[in-house]
Amino acid sequence: MKVKILCFGITKEILGDFEKEVELADGSTVDILKAKLIADYPSFSKLISLRIAVNEEYGDGALVLTERDEVVLIPPVSGG
To answer: With contact defined as beta carbons under 8 Å apart, do 75 and 7 qualify?
Structure first.
């Protein structure tokens, strides 16, 4: 299945675009997606406090993804 990913902040820089499509096996979880992103983009592993939202809600690592899901990568932010 193909999952659409929206990238913000540093994740956009690491993945090279605002929007990516990632091929995953049916039944893949958020943790499997993270592992694939780290394998394909090693710099991705440096994002310790990365959050992932699926369909506008934070998704834990065990959440099973479907082709209809919209996945958003939310990097750590700082402000002043």
So the answer is: no
Residue labelled with tokens 């809600």: 57
Interatomic CA distance for residues 15 and 41, integer angstroms = 7
Structure tokens at 17: 């675009």
Q: What is the pTM of this model?
A: 0.88
H or E, element range at 31: helix 30-40
Cα 55–chain centre separation: 12
Give the H or E element holding residue 51.
strand 51-54
SS3 54: strand
| DSSP state at residue 73 | E
Per-residue pLDDT of the chain (80 residues; tens, 9 = 90+): 999 999 998 999 999 999 999 999 999 999 999 999 999 999 988 888 889 999 999 988 999 999 988 999 998 776 55
